[in-house]
Hints:
The chain is mainly beta. It has one domain: Peptide methionine sulfoxide reductase (Metal Binding Protein, Guanine Nucleotide Exchange Factor, Chain A), CATH 2.170.150. The chain is built from two helices and nine strands; from the N terminus they run H-H-E-E-E-E-E-E-E-E-E. Strands 3-4-8-7-6-5 form a six-stranded antiparallel β-sheet. Strands 2-1-9 form a three-stranded antiparallel β-sheet, with no helix packed on it. It is globular. Zinc ion binds next to loops.
Amino acid sequence: xxxxxxxxxxxxxxxxxxxxxxxxxxxxxxxxxxxxxxxxxxxxxxxxxxxxxxxxxxxxxxxxxxxxxxxxxxxxxxxxxxxxxxxxxxxxxxxxxxxxxxxxxxxxxxxxxxxxxxxxxxxxxxxxxxxxxxxxxxxxxxxxx
Length: 145
Ligand SMILES: [Zn+2]
């Protein structure tokens, strides 16, 4: 559920109708900031080389070589493909502030970033699997939408 109007994520540059393109679970995470249950995403165990793209607009967000096993039950990365790929904001939904991050292109919520990740960044991007799509190397990336 979306909480407040000023919390509203942005729309993609091409279309706002991501609801029609996404499963209900994906839409709720991306645009209503739901959190999937731990250990439910097949991407948690994905180990092939490839790209992790935004499930909504297909913006490449992470690469497999920055993915690591965090033990949390969510796909975890220590670095996005580029600093411009994701945007962040403080999230006060819990008692302590967390840093929310989202796809910089469409505004879709991806997860939270914590400062207990591995080197070289020391960051842990804890991502909802349903907010991502995995494209193995050798397969073309889908067009942005
Ligand atoms: Zn996106």
